[in-house]
Amino acid sequence: MNKIGARALRVAAISAASVALVVANTGSASAAQYNGICDAKEVCIYKHTYLNGPWIDHQYADPNYTNNTWTGGGYPSQGTNDEASSLDSWDTNWKVRFFTNAYYGGSWQTLGVYARANTVTYNDQYSSHCWNDGGVSGYAQCDF
After folding, report:
1. Best label site of 68, 80, 81, 143, fewest CB within 10 Å?
2. DSSP string of 20-65?
């Protein structure tokens, strides 16, 4: 192989390695709801106290847990409604409020910014949650 061909081959190999490196690193920068990982700007709900057992990760408000299932730690076919025993917020900007009824009704517990509740106030009773959104959602309960 001549010098030009060898150089072109080296440039192509370096370019391919650079593209592979960029592609490999693009997916980890943002949170992905329901992927079983508690990422930044998410809140994770655990079935058992002290962040044990299966969990579900939420990136957005959820007015009704009825059709939710655990995304991490097993039990993928079991529902999460009225099953929360501990909470873990990875959001560094907003508080999250958990409600005992769907559509932000009933009794509630507020979890602070980047906070954790190893035991919840209303064990096995939460059915919805929302972030403190300053009234954007239209639900007064989410403006706290």
Report:
1. 143
2. HHHHHHSTTSS--TTSS---TT-EEEEEETTTEEEEEEESS-BS--
